[in-house]
Each structure stands twice: as structure tokens, then as C-alpha cells.
Write a structure and sequence with these properties.
single chain, elongated
Length: about 160
């Protein structure tokens, strides 16, 4: 193993040998030492995770929090994570994806990507209110206003 800085000092003081230490215990130890977020915060952030950009970016964030959540709750079934993933998607993708009833995260990820491609974000156009022309009202007793470019029949050429 190659360690630098704080990790090197930690490993030397841990008193563990790589041969006798199972990989999942080693990962847990690393996260306990260097992860700057508590288990409660991880669960809260995972629970409140919502898609705010593209599906691939949401998937990356979801997998990051899922990994941390699985670390603290290894017995959670995949169905829980599939449901959590779907609930965090934007509405137009979420409702269509629920109809497909994906049985795995891999399927849910695939369907979500395809649904986003099939229904790209629509452009929003700004609607400007139309200006009303001010029109003078005139009665029969008054002469109608003459156009400015009208030819005067009494003038001579």
C-alpha cells in the first residue's frame, strides 16, 4: 500500500496488517477516520436527494449517497434503492418510469436516461404583452382624421 500525509500516520498507528483485515472492514475504518459527514446527515441527504440537473448527474450523486447509506444499513434491499431513486427524479420522468416497474437499479438508470432523451426540456419563451394603440374616438359631426401621407386634391402640381 502507498500512503501519504494523514493517511500514512493513521495507518501506521492503526496496528493492522493488510493480510488479516477484510476489505469491507478496511473501507469502514477509512470512512470512519476521514469522512466528514455523520450517519444521520448521510441518511437525511439521501432521503432528500432530488434531481436538479441531468439524469446522469443525478445517478452519480445517488450512487454516492447510496454507497454511504449501504455502509450503515447493509441489509437494505435493492427495491428500497430503486424506489428511492425513482422518487428523486423530476416529475415527468418519475411518472413514466413508475409505469415500467424496474426491478433493478440498472434498469431504473437505463429507463431514466432514455426517458430524459425522449422528452428534452422545452424551451421557455418570454411572452410580451401587446401594446394597445391609442385611437381617438370621433363622431359624425367631426371630420375623420386624415392620414399624414394623403394627397391634397386642391394643391397644384
Amino acid at each position: 500500500m502507498y500512503w501519504k500525509g494523514k493517511a500514512d500516520y493513521w495507518w501506521r498507528g492503526a496496528g493492522c496488517t493488510p493480510v488479516a483485515l477484510p476489505w469491507h472492514h478496511f473501507c469502514r475504518m477509512l470512512e470512519d477516520i476521514f469522512l466528514e459527514i455523520s450517519s444521520a446527515e448521510i441518511i437525511g441527504q439521501f432521503y432528500n436527494l432530488k434531481q436538479t440537473s441531468t439524469v446522469p448527474e443525478y445517478i452519480d450523486k445517488f450512487e454516492e449517497f447510496m454507497r454511504l447509506d449501504k455502509r450503515n444499513n447493509p441489509s437494505l434491499p435493492e427495491e428500497y434503492f430503486v424506489s428511492s431513486f425513482i422518487v428523486g427524479l423530476k416529475d415527468f420522468i418519475q411518472h413514466h418510469l413508475q409505469c415500467h416497474k424496474p426491478s433493478s437499479l440498472t434498469q431504473a438508470f437505463w429507463f431514466a436516461r432514455r426517458l430524459e432523451q425522449a422528452n428534452p426540456q422545452q424551451k421557455r419563451y418570454t411572452v410580451f404583452p401587446q401594446m394597445q394603440k391609442l385611437v381617438k374616438q370621433w363622431t359624425k359631426e367631426q371630420k375623420p382624421p386624415e392620414p399624414k401621407d394623403a394627397i391634397n386634391p386642391t394643391s397644384s402640381w
